[in-house]
Structure formats: C-alpha cells, structure tokens
UniProtKB/TrEMBL annotation, chain A:
InterPro entries: A-crystallin/Hsp20_dom, HSP20-like_chaperone, Small_HSP
Protein name: HSP20 family protein
Organism field: Sedimentitalea nanhaiensis
Lineage: Bacteria, Pseudomonadati, Pseudomonadota, Alphaproteobacteria, Rhodobacterales
SHSP domain span: 34-146
Domain of life of the native organism: Bacteria
Family, per entry: Belongs to the small heat shock protein (HSP20) family.
TrEMBL record, chain B:
Protein family (similarity comment): Belongs to the small heat shock protein (HSP20) family.
Basic and acidic residues: bias regions: 13-22
SUPFAM superfamilies per the UniProt record, alphabetical: HSP20-like chaperones
CDD domains for the chain: ACD_sHsps-like
Region (Disordered): 1-28
UniProt-recorded name of the protein: Molecular chaperone IbpA, HSP20 family
Pfam families the record matches: HSP20
Domain SHSP: 21-133
Species the sequence originates in: Sedimentitalea nanhaiensis
Length: 146, 133
C-alpha cells in the first residue's frame, strides 16, 4: 500500500502544539529583542521574477560590521551591534536597544547565485537582492507549428 | 530622570499597534537613556525613517519624538513574508526641571536618533568657597 504524508502512528499532536506556541510567542514578542536567539534583525522578504529581496531593520549597525553569507537557499546575516556607550561611568536610565553579536539564518524560497548578490543600507534598513542562477531560470519554450 | 509619560502604541512592539488615520500603526521605539556629567543622551532606534522626516518637539516640559517609516516595496517585487511593517514611531518623555529645554541637540544617522540634553546652569553642582573669618 502506498501511503502519503505521516501515518497516524507518526503524528505527534504535541509537536504541532509546540510549533503553535512558538508562533504565538513570536507574535506577542515585545520590545526586548536580543540578538542571541537568532531573531534579530527582523526581516521582510520580497519575491520577484528571477530574484528575491530580503530587507532587515538594523538601526545603528555600520555597513562594515555586517557579514553576509549566501549558500544555495540560505542567507546568513551576522555581525555585531556596538553598545550605545562604552563609558563605564555613565549612569543608565533606560536600556532597551539590543547590542552585541547577532546571527540570523534565513531560508530563501529559491536557490541563489552567490555572484548575484547586492546589498545596500539606507536609514538603518539593509536591503539584500539575490538573483537565481542562470541555469535555473524558467525558460519559455516556443511551440512550433508543424 | 527623563521619565516616560505616555505609552504610545502600547507595549506590544511591532505587531498590533493602534491603527490611526492613514499613517498606519504607531510603534514605540526602543530607547537608551544615559547620563554622564552634565549631559543626558537619549538614543532612539528609528529604522526606515529619513532624517528630514524626524520631528522632535518640546512642549510643557514634555519631549516628543516622531518619525514615519519610509520603506517602499522594492520595485517589481511582491512581499511574501513580513516581520515589520510601515507606520510611525512615536514616544514622549517628560523632562525634569534640571534639563535646559532650550539646549537640545538632535542627530539622525543609520536609522538612529540621538538627542543630547544638557543640564541647566542652576542644576549644576557648585563649589562654595569657605572664607576664613
């Protein structure tokens, strides 16, 4: 007998619940964003014909401090966010902005060519444009009249 | 010092903020405040806000910062996944009497707004000379 998907014996309702819980936590995640849990920076993803764009909110991160890695269909945004001040004599009244090392791995909806990656930063938003390898572009096939 | 008076957008950071007018939701930006000698520095994250659209105002010893996010969709692309959305950053702080409201400097760089507040002359510690009688 052919079976598709998971058989009832393999189905784990708790796995789904756990997944739902993490999704809910993410939905209600408030201000305190820490780079350690791999959720920083927050990203948006945009799809074009032969390319994909990832935009990330990274206020205060200098371009030189951002390290991008692209492999197949994975993009890794890593780097370090400098603390507001390194002055130990400063008295803190409020400290909400995350700082320190961060690394986030993002799965892309298509495989990208590492030679076709362009990144720009503007007003604290990083934009990474990645193109598909030429060999994987969808090709139009002409129908010839016989 | 520099206590927060109003909560704009509520505590929910970037998900369900209050929807107002046509400017979209209002977000409360993450803020650092620290004090060194006679200077108080306020650092506010405002990603996607252009420097000329930042509005800093002082009224009745209340300091309000506001900036709308200018993040247009990349041309020829459609959004397939989102963790942040356009809208307005807004937050208000109350200035203590020790701050000179007339001497506030503001700079905006890489999506971060930095305000430099100075303590007023009257609030600075003074040395009083003791004269020998």
């Amino acid at each position: 007998m052919l079976s598709y998907g998971l058989s009832p014996a393999q189905w784990d309702p708790f796995a789904e619940l756990r997944q739902l819980q993490s999704q809910m936590n993410r939905m209600f995640d408030t201000g305190a964003r820490s780079g350690r849990d791999g959720n920083w920076p927050p990203v948006n993803m945009w799809l074009g014909d032969d390319s994909v764009v990832v935009t990330a909110e990274m206020p205060g991160v200098a371009q030189d401090d951002i390290d991008l890695t692209v492999r197949e269909n994975t993009l890794i945004i890593a780097g370090e966010r400098n603390p507001t001040t390194g002055d130990e004599d400063a008295v803190w009244h409020r400290r909400e902005r995350p700082s320190g090392e961060f690394s986030r791995s993002i799965r892309l909806p298509l495989r990208v060519d590492p030679d076709k990656v362009e990144a720009r930063a503007k007003n604290g938003i990083l934009e990474i444009e990645m193109g598909r390898p030429d060999a994987e572009r969808p090709r139009k096939i002409k129908v010839k009249a016989s | 010092m520099t206590n927060e008076v109003t909560k704009t957008g509520g505590d929910v950071a970037r998900t369900e903020a209050e929807d107002t007018r046509d400017t979209g939701p209002v977000y409360r930006p993450a803020t650092d405040i620290f004090e060194k000698d006679d200077v108080v520095t306020v650092v506010i994250d405002m990603p996607g806000v252009t420097p000329d659209s930042v509005d800093v105002s002082v009224e009745n010893r209340s300091l309000t910062v506001r900036g709308s996010i200018d993040a247009p969709a990349p041309e020829g692309y459609r959004r397939i996944y989102a963790e942040y959305a356009p809208g307005t950053f807004e937050r208000a702080f109350s200035l203590p009497d020790t701050i000179d409201a007339g001497k506030i400097d503001a700079t905006h760089r890489d999506g971060v707004l930095t305000l430099t507040l100075k303590k007023s002359e009257a609030a600075k510690p003074k040395q009083i000379k003791v004269n020998a009688a």
